[in-house]
Design goal:
This protein is of the alpha/beta class and 217 residues long. The protein has a single domain (12-215), classed as Alpha-Beta Barrel (TIM Barrel). It is 36% helix and 17% strand. The protein has helices at residues 18-23, 28-36, 55-72, 82-87, 105-112, 156-166, 182-187, 197-200, 205-215, and strands spanning 12-15, 44-48, 75-79, 92-95, 118-123, 135-138, 171-174, 192-195. Strand 4 (92-95), helix 5 (105-112) and strand 5 form a beta-alpha-beta unit.
């Protein structure tokens, strides 16, 4: 069953990245806490993604991030581990692009989430966006700084504009986005932007996030 599209309750999606934090000598929790400090975090959602760690270790990190986000007023999502969103009372979950080729996976995730919880999915240029998610995370718009070996050609603003026009759900733009081009992504039709290295790997995550949010005003 198709869901009526609803406006996204965030403008910036901060995706965690342990490697980007480690380059700066920080952990994920420390970085997110610094980034959200004093920021109007009602415009922000944090998506924890760490495919290299076990579910148990991710659970501890997600629980700590949930506390941080609740205190700051940000929304908290988790990648892949839908059961964590349910058991920890998170604001939603996010599925990898592989879910698009597995019959019933999106519907199953939706059935496990609480009513009103957000469900997102990663998509690329040629993917069909399922209408029963709340947003599609589209990448790469520009050359990603956090994945220098990504060989997929960037969509650019024209590609983003076309994808937004064709999508049945709000699009969140990802890939090489920072304060210099975030506004252009919104003007091209994206409902929000997602960042990884621009904040997680920033020398000052708080300033980087503030500038990103200011750029979209």
């Amino acid at each position: 069953m198709e869901r009526a599209a609803r406006a996204l309750p965030f403008r910036a999606l901060l995706i965690t990245d342990r490697a980007a934090c480690a380059v700066r000598g920080r952990g994920v929790i420390e970085t997110v806490a610094h980034a959200l400090d004093g920021v109007d975090a009602h415009q922000v959602a944090v998506l924890h993604r760490d495919k290299a760690r076990s579910a148990e270790r991710n659970l501890r990190t997600v629980a700590a991030l949930r506390t941080l986000c609740r205190h700051a007023g940000a929304r908290m999502l988790v990648h892949t581990h839908v059961f964590m969103a349910t058991s920890l009372g998170l604001d939603g979950a996010h599925l990898a692009s592989e879910a698009l080729s597995t019959e019933g996976e999106v519907a199953l995730a939706r059935s496990l989430l609480a009513p009103g919880a957000l469900l997102g999915v990663s998509v690329h240029a040629s993917d069909r966006v399922p209408p029963d998610v709340d947003y599609a995370l589209l990448a790469p718009v520009f050359a990603p700084t956090s994945k220098p070996h990504d060989t997929r050609p960037p969509l650019g603003l024209d590609g983003l504009r076309a994808a937004c026009a064709a999508s049945p759900v709000p699009v969140v733009a990802l890939g090489g986005i920072d304060e210099s081009n975030a506004r252009a992504c919104i003007d091209a039709g994206a409902h929000a932007v997602a960042v990884i290295g621009a904040v997680m790997g920033a020398r000052d995550p708080n300033t980087a996030l503030r500038h990103l949010l200011d750029a979209m005003c």
